[in-house]
Amino acid sequence: MLRWTSPSRPTLLQGFLAVAAARGWFAQEGVELRVASGAGTADAVGAVARGEAELGMSAPLASCPAIARGAPVVSIAQVAYRGFFEIASDRELRRAQDLQGLRIGVASAGGGTAQQLDAISLAAGLDPRGVAHVVTGLGLDGLAALRRGEVDGFFVFYETREALERAGESLRYLAIDDLAPMPGAAILARADLVASRPDALRAVLRACLRGLAAMRDPSVATEVLALQPPAARALLDDEAALRVLARLRPALSPPEGIAPGAMDEAAWARALATMAGLGLLGAASPRPGAFMTNALVPGHAPQAGPGGG
How far is CA 307 from CA 28, 126, 273, 289, in A? Predict the structure, then answer.
């Protein structure tokens, strides 16, 4: 039996877990995976670090700073190869320069959206302090703040954008990864388990990767959605859920030359360099091998160049 802490209530991004469980793929691997909902990526990282769970899920923007501070966790497989955050606005935003002098709604003070907003400025050689942060969450409060003139734009997730479009809101969207690329969600494990229980972790990954393959297959989209828990569909009707799944699919697909589930070590190296530039890693070396390993991913072949797989 292994315990898993998710970064939130069930969502379609985590849908591969529901598919693998419903299809009996964990059971076939001899694994009982007990999934608990967390209250954010920091909560998921913390639960694994404290030993309250053996596994979890978090984007490297949340896990890597914790690892740099000594958290005994490591990313062992990639779920999404890019992030889903966008900035919604009623004005045209295309470049980092367009954000200077604006007030942007972030999910939380000092959280992942705030850090990635700073990363956009840093990548363009601009001062991150030129963009003001206003906490609006990831729900529809950002729209209300925009209408009141309190912000010039606000962060949205794929579910939020779907809700805004269904409501007929004509907003413009800036994909954050177009300006400051960061690897998306990854599967975390306690670092000591990589050596002490590698077979158990590989078994979990095999089942998860089968679930992710189903998520990427448009021919079984209706079946995938039927297997999701009600909480994952709470904000979406069938038509909207299918559109969200279609939005997720490209990000769940590995780049050419990368095995499904394997982390793109070059992309991680670039992301870690950005995090170091933002001061998120302290004195820790931004060497990918200190934060991730591809050693447990089926079919992975080590990449050339920098990396720590």
Answer: 33, 28, 12, 6
Q: Name the packing angle between helices 15-22 and 198-216 (round to 10°).
A: 100
pLDDT digits (tens, 9 = 90+) for 140-192: 899 999 999 999 999 998 888 888 988 899 999 999 888 988 899 999 999 99
Write out the DSSP string of 158-195: HHHHHHHHHTT---EEEEGGGTS-----EEEEETTHHH
Q: How far is residue 72's CA from residue 32's CA, in Å, rounded to a whole number?
A: 23
Spatial separation of the C-alpha atoms in residues 121 and 114, rounded to whole Å: 11
In degrees and rounded to multiples of 5, residue 172 shows phi and psi of -110, 150
Q: pTM of the entire structure?
A: 0.86
For 218, residues 6+ apart whose C-beta sits below 8 A from its C-beta are: 246, 249
